[in-house]
Amino acid sequence: MGRPAAGREEGRLMEEKVFKDPVHKYIYVQDRVIWDLVNTPEFQRLRRIRQLGTTYLTFHGAEHSRFSHSMGVYEIARSILSRFERNGYARFSREEKLLFLCAALLHDIGHAPFSHSVEPFLADRHEVWSCRIILADTAVNRLLRDVGGDFPQQVADVLRKSHPNRLAVSLISSQLDADRMDYLLRDAYFTGVNYGTFELERILRVMRPLGGRIVVKESGMHAVEDYLMSRYQMYWQVYFHPVTRGSEILLRNVLRRAADLHLQGYRFAFLPDPLKDLFDGTLDVSGYLKLDESFLQMAFMQWTEERDRTLADLSARFINRRLFKYRPIRNGREEEVERMRSLAASAGWDPDYYVEVDRVRNLPYDVYRPGQDGESMPIYLLDEDGNLEEISTRSHIVRSISETEQAEEHLYFPEELAPDGS
């Protein structure tokens, strides 16, 4: 690419940067603040956090990171804004565009290791940690303050869904947002399944900004149906896969055992400060940023040699993928659970850590249900007369998905307790 003409807008790179991407082909960066944010230690940390947590133990290709997903969300947001301006649907000031793009890029900056599996041990969800990192004395904060003194707060407000610019919130957190569209395509690609694929280009072409929200031309209804069906299938076929759920249970029980031991005053051979602070509930931003998957896996490897038999065994099972077995629970739930707990105790295993019931059900986040997803905006269709209709009132497919109630319950236990060895 050639050098730009003289007088190029301040804050733009002299030459745009291009990232090769398996999902979007190319990711384009034209703004210096975006380029600099990508190169901060806080954003580079996302390379060391897998997008799908322990799913790599089920689908071996699922090694992609929160870094690549965040870049993809940025690229979809950039493409949407570019289309809106190019087609005359909207005009944005430079600060507005930077607000949209920085919020898209940084929406997962505070994610914990192993995706959502570690969140039960944190006092707050990853969205809260994202805002803390943005507002604390970090490289990210300093770069955002260079845009404007209150700019870090504005970006945090978009992530909190409290910013007055509802279009920015809709772009990052709605039922049809850049976040969901990227993770479905990216997760489908890296897990090797077809469930999450949909026609992104078609959806981007029919999106319109209207009244502080993003709506869809009614001619694009079928493309959105395909997207919502893909979302439904990905949750049940990938995200709720019982092997993945079992690996999450094992991971949580490793940490739960370590936390219980720490609170009991157990003297660890290895317990670095960030984990001690995590268990004490005193973790600050500096300590949180040290927590990545390499750090936790190092701890798990060390714990395989701890004196505590339960912690050592659980850690070894996770490190070496000796996952718990599972079977569906249909009738006689209490009797079956108690029988397995008795078997575990007889074998010398604490049933509180080795026997667990897991129940998954479709939630509004993964199965589209208008009006039941908190502050997440529903999808509206825009007709030729400028009227809006919520999509489930027009689409039999969406209505069918939104009215579906589905739940599964599995009992997890060590493989050694499986009566048939299977």
Descriptive account of the structure:
There is one protein chain. The protein is α+β, with helices and mostly antiparallel strands and 422 residues long. It folds into 2 domains: 12-240 and 380-390, Hypothetical protein af1432; 242-361 and 408-417, Growth Hormone, Chain: A (Up-down Bundle). Helix content is 48%, strand content 12%. It contains 19 helices and 9 strands. The chain has helices at 32-38, 41-44, 66-86, 94-106, 126-135, 139-147, 151-159, 166-172, 178-191, 200-206, 221-239, 242-263, 273-280, 285-288, 293-303, 309-319, 333-346, 351-354, 396-402; strands at residues 12-21, 25-31, 207-210, 213-217, 325-328, 356-361, 380-382, 388-390, 407-413. The strands form 3 sheets. It has a 4-stranded mixed beta sheet with strand order 3-4-7-8. It starts with 11 loop residues before the first strand and ends in a 9-residue tail after the last strand.
